[in-house]
Amino acid sequence: MRDRLPVALSGATALLLGAATALVLAPLGELRGGWFALTAFAAGCAALGTRSRPVAAPFIGLAAWLFHNGFAEHRYAQLGWDGPGHLALFTASALVAALPWRRLRVHD
User: Fold this and answer.
1) Which helix (H) or strand (E) is 12 found in, with range?
2) Which residue, among 11, 17, 23, has the nearest Cα to 71 in the 3D structure?
3) Enclosing domain of residue 74
4) Within 10 A of 11 (CB to CB), how many other CB atoms are there?
5) Contact at 8 Å (CB) between 52 and 11?
6) Where are the beta strands (DSSP E) in 15-74?
7) pLDDT digits (tens, 9 = 90+) for 71-104
8) Where would you find the membrane-spanning parts of this chain (predicted)?
9) How far is it, in rounded angstroms, from Cα 61 to Cα 96?
10) 57 beta partners
11) Does a structural domain hold residue 2?
12) Roughly what angle, to the nearest 10 degrees, separates helices 7-28 and 57-67?
């Protein structure tokens, strides 16, 4: 099994990833609430989750939610609570990617 990032480093990387995702979406005109921004942030959580420990998934999800909520949903870095849906999506995508899935082998 390959080495996984420590939890603190995963959280810090998630903050940087959230900022980078917001910066990339802004010139594309996709920094608004919608499926594209939601998918981009969830894909970033899943990508970081593959290199992180499962315990880090809540931190990754929270960091992605902060940037998505502050810049895509409510704009101008204003946070608002619309329920746990997006936070749960980001956390779940990081957690599923972080779980140590083993390939099934068929023995003859």
Assistant:
1) helix 7-28
2) 23
3) 7-98
4) 18
5) no
6) none
7) 888 877 777 777 788 889 999 999 988 887 665 4
8) 32-48, 55-72, 84-101
9) 12
10) none
11) no
12) 30
Residue 66 falls inside a structural domain: yes
Its pTM stands at: 0.83
Residue 77 placed within a domain: yes
State pLDDT tens for residues 1-54. Answer: 468 888 899 999 999 999 999 999 888 887 777 889 899 999 999 999 999 999
Q: How deeply is 47 buried, as exposed, middle or buried, from its count of CB atoms within 10 A (0-12, 13-18, 19+)?
A: middle
State whether residue 84 is helix, strand or coil: coil
Q: What are phi and psi of 5, to 5 degrees?
A: -70, 145
Distance CA 25, CA 32 (A): 9
Domains contained in the chain, number:
1
Phi then psi dihedrals of residue 3, to 5 deg: -70, 140
Domain for residue 12, yes or no?
yes
d(CA 46, CA 98): 8
Cβ contacts of residue 93 below 8 Å, gap of 6+? 42, 43, 45, 46, 49, 61
